[in-house]
Write a structure and sequence with these properties.
Helices cover 34% and strands 24% of the residues. With 92 residues, the chain is α+β, with helices and mostly antiparallel strands. This is YlxR family protein.
Length: 92
């Protein structure tokens, strides 16, 4: 029995658990410094991963995990817009 190679694993910046890359959402910092959600996981830029849960986003906000991973300070307005985008994903 042959396997299909490695399964890419990523660490959630909120709960710090290692999970399958496909089970997570990528938060992206573009070259212009814009921070957004990357649903495809293929856009250019520096990325950090979060579980598909609002709790992980709140933990990442509290422990500054996204700021550490993306190497940039993130204003509250950006976190608020990420929460709105998360709500849009949760309803799908």
């Amino acid at each position: 029995m042959k396997t299909k190679g490695k399964i890419p694993m990523r660490q959630c910046t909120g709960c710090r658990e290692m999970k399958n890359k496909k089970e997570m959402i990528r938060v992206l910092r573009t070259g212009e410094g814009e921070i957004l959600l990357d649903a495809t996981g293929k856009k250019n830029g520096r990325g950090a991963y979060l579980c598909f849960s609002r709790e992980c986003l709140e933990k990442a906000r509290k422990n500054h995990g996204l700021e550490r991973s993306l190497k940039v300070s993130i204003p509250d307005e950006v976190y608020d817009s990420l929460e709105k985008e998360f709500d849009g994903i949760d309803s799908k």
